[in-house]
Structure formats: structure tokens, C-alpha cells
Design a protein that fits this description.
With 522 residues, the protein is mainly alpha-helical. It has one domain. Helix content is 72%, strand content 2%. The protein has a two-stranded antiparallel sheet with strand order 1-2. Helix 5 packs across helix 11, helix 5 packs across helix 13 and helix 17 crosses helix 18. It is globular, with a radius of gyration of 25 Å.
């Protein structure tokens, strides 16, 4: 009873929304209601993956990451690359690992730069000179890295055609190996040197803001070990490039899709950690600059996608497990789907047959629930989760306990961006890829968070659920119409009412509860 009194407004609003959804079900058949609910849950699952990461980052760090949608989009395009052109990923692995190897020596670089006379080290020209040298070396080396890829400006070699080639299972036949134009050792040395110089420049900029700190010998050993490990793996991948490429191209689409998910998440986590440690960290006391920076990064991300993959949208084929269309399809049970890998399942409800897409309306929902449970367990049952929850309440107290808050911030930002990238690669086979997908999902996620509460993980789940269901019910009633009193013809909502309805709901909720359903009171 006391819980009801404490959260009375939340319960009343949730009860009113549940009543509205029940009333909405009265105007459609059981089949239509079930399909609409499943589609709403599918949209909610993708929205939640973006909203949850955004919520965790904002709750702990007070950073409004407006580049979250662009990172969702980048996860989708990276996933497409790993799925359709795994040979490109194999070629790209060596330069990326060599570049990261330079950053692995950061402790040694910090120690070396700290021994440079302060009058030279503290000059801005010193740090800017290192940065200019890094960019020049990378500009000269990167274009010569041997890499098999597509050409978005040529239709016959564009991502659209390569997607069709993948569906025809001819990628292994038509993909051509990359040819090195200059000696490989020279290119790899340049990329490694560029990474070292870039890491040194970032350390030099950091030293201008605060005096250098002592570097522990353990950190030096870890950095050297990581450097040697990255260097070894990079050279091994280059040495065995041909058999690795042949192996990847021989895999089934199911394994390639799993590989795409892993690569998208790794890319998201890496970009998130890099963004926080290099761009966001210096701006923690400048909220306006954070917003401007992440807003600018969103535009940069969009332009990178357009430059690398082109402006035209294209599809990402579903893996074999969800793409069967031959004998035995559509399936009539889960067992039939597992046997024939059908793209749809037909079930009979109240004498009517409902066709359910196995990827869109089943797999995406399962993945959304799985991520919800896993992240909740991390937040509730692990030491990192305890630190995150405590930091949301009082970050200064956490720092006073001797916890390295900077490292926690980096991990949280990387986790949030990784969830967005995961959402992108999972959504790509269902919605396709386009350079506008990031902006669309960011708007939907922000509406869901405003309804559920910007700093609440459960609020992100509830808000995403409400937004997903409302959108799909409005779309469905746009097809069948709503019989309103005093109207002879059913009212059919137009497509612009889909986003407008969720915005209206957000306004109503915020008028009643400015912090959202589950947001903390300031």
C-alpha cells in the first residue's frame, strides 16, 4: 500500500495506458491484435537497445550523446560489411591492430614525454606538431594498405550489387584479393608510427591541462605485453590472409551473421571508449560543448557512411536460419521452423491464420529480452554495476571511495555505444540500411526515454515498450480505420500521425511527471 502511495502517479499513468491498449484491441480481430503486438515488441526491442545505452551514459556521466543514432547506424553498416564482405574485414584487421598497437604503448609514451623539459612539453606547438605529424604519416600510409572493397560510385561494384551477389552465393567467386602497390612493410611501419604519434599527441595535450603523473612499472609491463600481442596478431593475420579469407567466405550465412554481430559490437565498444577518453573527458564541466560535440560527431558519422558505403539505401539479407522459402514453408510450428528454417510461421487463432516473420517478430524480441536481462544482471549483480548505480546517485562519493571513476566512465560509455551498435546490426536485416536510420532511431529512443525517465534503465525498457506498441497500433488503424462516435466512415490515421502520437504521449506524461515515469527527482 505504501509503495502505491509513493508511486501513485506512475501506477495511474501505466494503468491508463494499459486501458487504452485494451480498448484499441476491441476494434480489431484477434489475429490482427497478435501480429500488431508482436510488431510493436519488435520495434520496442530495437529502440530499447539504443535507449538503454543512452540512459546508462546519461545517468552516470550526465552526457547527452547525440551521436548515439549515428553509432547505431555505423553498427549496421559494419555488420553488413562483416556479413557480406568478410574478406574486407580480414584485410582491415592488420592496419587496425597496428594502429591500436601504437596506443598500447601509452604508458611508455607518458613516461618518455614526462622527461622532456617542461618549457618544451607545455608549449601548445609541441602537441600540435605531434598531431600534425601523426595525421601526415597516416595520410601517406593508409591509402596504400592492401584492402579488397567495393566502390559506391560504381553501380556494378556497389554495396547494392554485392548484396545481390551474396544472395546468389557468389561472393567467394567474384571477390578479388587486394594487391599491394608499395612494399607492405613500409605501409605497416607507417601505420604503426602514425598510431604512436597520435597517442603521443593526445598525451601531450592532456599534460598541458594537468601535470604528468608517475607511471607504475606494472602499467609499463602491461602496455608492452599488449603492444607485442597486437603486433603479433596483426602480422599473423597478414601472413595467413589468403587462407583466412577463403575460410570466412566458405562459412554459412548463420555463422557470418554471428561474426557480423561480434564485429559490430567490438567496433561500437572501441569507438565508445575512444570517444570518451579523447573527446568527451575534457568537456565534463561544459555540458553545452558536449552537446555540440556529439551533435557534430553525428554529422561526421553520417558523412563517413555516405563516403564509404554510398548514399543509396540497400538491404542486408537475413541469415539462412530465418530465410527459408522452399518446401515445408511457411512453418506451422517452432519445430517446423527449426527443420526448414522458414522465414515465416503461420499459426491459427480464433479460426484465423496469422503469418509471423521469424526474424522480425520472434528473433528480435528474444534478443531484446536477452539483452534486457543480461544488462540488468550486470547492473544488479556485479561490482561494476554497483559502482554504476552508486555513481548515478552520487558520483563524487564514488570517487571519494578511491574508485577510478575515469575508467568506469570509459567502460560505461563503451558499453552504451556497444548496445547501440548491437541494435544497428540486429535491425539491419529487418529494416534495411540507409543514412537516415540513425536519426530516426535516435528520435524514437529519446521519446521513449522522456516517457520512461532519462536516467532509468527500467524506464528505458518501459518507454520503449510503450512507444513501439503505440506506433504499431496507429499504423494498423491507419489500415483498418477506427470507428469513432458521430462518424459514418472509420477514421484512418495518416502516416504523419505515427510519430506525432508518440510525441503527444510524451508531452502528456511530462506534464504530469516532468522526470518521466521512472526518472529520479532532481
Amino acid at each position: 500500500m505504501s509503495s502505491f502511495r509513493t508511486h501513485r502517479a506512475q501506477w495511474i499513468i501505466l494503468a491508463a495506458l494499459a486501458l487504452l491498449f485494451l480498448l484499441a484491441a476491441q476494434g480489431m480481430s484477434t489475429r490482427d491484435w497478435l501480429v500488431t503486438v508482436l510488431r510493436g515488441l519488435s520495434v520496442a526491442a530495437v529502440t530499447f537497445l539504443v535507449a538503454s545505452g543512452f540512459s546508462i551514459i546519461f545517468g552516470l556521466m550526465d552526457v547527452l550523446n547525440l551521436a548515439h543514432g549515428a553509432l547505431f547506424m555505423l553498427g549496421a553498416y559494419v555488420g553488413w560489411t562483416a556479413y557480406v564482405r568478410p574478406d574486407t574485414v580480414i584485410d582491415l584487421a592488420t592496419p587496425v591492430l597496428l594502429f591500436l598497437a601504437g596506443f598500447a604503448l601509452s604508458p611508455a609514451l607518458t613516461l618518455g614525454l614526462s622527461r622532456i623539459p617542461a618549457r618544451l612539453r607545455e608549449r601548445r606547438a609541441f602537441a600540435w606538431g605531434l598531431l600534425a605529424a601523426a595525421l601526415l604519416v597516416l595520410y601517406l600510409a593508409l591509402p596504400h594498405a592492401p584492402m579488397a572493397a567495393w566502390h559506391p560510385g560504381e553501380y556494378t561494384d556497389s554495396p547494392i550489387v554485392w548484396t545481390q551477389t551474396f544472395e546468389a552465393e557468389r561472393v567467394a567467386e567474384l571477390a578479388q584479393p587486394a594487391v599491394a602497390e608499395v612494399p607492405a612493410w613500409l605501409v605497416w611501419s607507417g601505420i604503426l608510427l602514425g598510431g604512436l604519434l597520435l597517442a603521443a599527441s593526445l598525451i601531450a595535450f592532456n599534460m598541458q591541462r594537468r601535470p604528468p603523473v608517475a607511471v607504475a612499472s606494472a602499467a609499463l609491463r602491461r602496455g608492452l605485453f599488449l603492444f607485442l600481442a597486437l603486433l603479433t596478431v596483426a602480422l599473423l593475420i597478414y601472413g595467413f590472409n589468403t587462407p583466412l579469407t577463403a575460410f570466412m567466405l566458405s562459412l554459412s550465412s548463420n555463422w557470418l551473421f554471428l561474426f557480423a554481430i561480434v564485429m559490430a559490437v567490438i567496433t561500437g565498444v572501441g569507438l565508445g571508449g575512444l570517444m570518451e577518453s579523447t573527446l568527451i573527458r575534457p568537456l565534463y564541466e561544459r555540458a553545452l560543448y558536449q552537446i555540440m560535440l556529439t551533435f557534430g560527431l553525428a554529422f561526421i558519422g553520417t558523412e563517413i557512411v555516405r563516403a564509404v558505403w554510398g548514399r543509396s539505401g540497400f538491404t542486408m539479407p537475413k541469415p539462412e536460419l530465418f530465410a527459408g522459402r522452399g518446401e515445408g514453408c511457411p512453418a506451422t510450428s517452432i519445430g517446423g521452423w527449426l527443420q526448414h528454417h522458414c522465414s515465416t510461421i503461420v499459426i491459427e487463432i480464433a479460426g484465423e491464420k496469422a503469418r509471423i516473420r521469424t526474424y522480425n517478430e520472434l528473433f528480435l524480441i528474444v534478443m531484446g529480452v536477452l539483452v534486457l536481462v543480461v544488462v540488468w544482471l550486470i547492473l544488479q549483480r556485479t561490482r561494476l554495476g554497483m559502482i554504476i548505480r552508486a555513481g548515478v546517485q552520487d558520483s563524487e562519493m564514488v570517487e571519494a571511495l578511491g574508485i577510478d571513476v575515469r575508467r568506469v566512465f570509459t567502460l560505461v560509455f563503451a558499453l552504451g555505444v556497444g548496445l547501440a551498435a548491437l541494435g544497428g546490426v540486429l535491425a539491419a536485416p529487418a529494416t534495411g540500411l540507409s543514412d537516415a536510420m540513425g536519426a530516426h532511431v535516435l528520435l524514437t529512443a529519446l521519446i521513449a526515454l522522456a516517457i520512461g525517465g532519462l536516467t532509468s534503465y527500467p524506464g528505458a525498457a518501459v518507454g520503449s515498450l510503450i512507444v513501439g506498441l503505440m506506433q504499431q497500433f496507429i499504423i494498423k488503424y491507419g489500415q483498418i480505420g477506427i470507428q469513432l462516435p458521430f462518424m459514418d466512415e472509420p477514421f484512418k490515421p495518416t502516416p504523419p500521425l505515427v510519430p506525432a502520437s508518440t510525441v503527444l504521449l510524451m508531452v502528456v506524461v511530462l506534464l504530469l511527471m516532468p522526470q518521466g515515469l521512472f526518472g529520479r527527482r532532481e
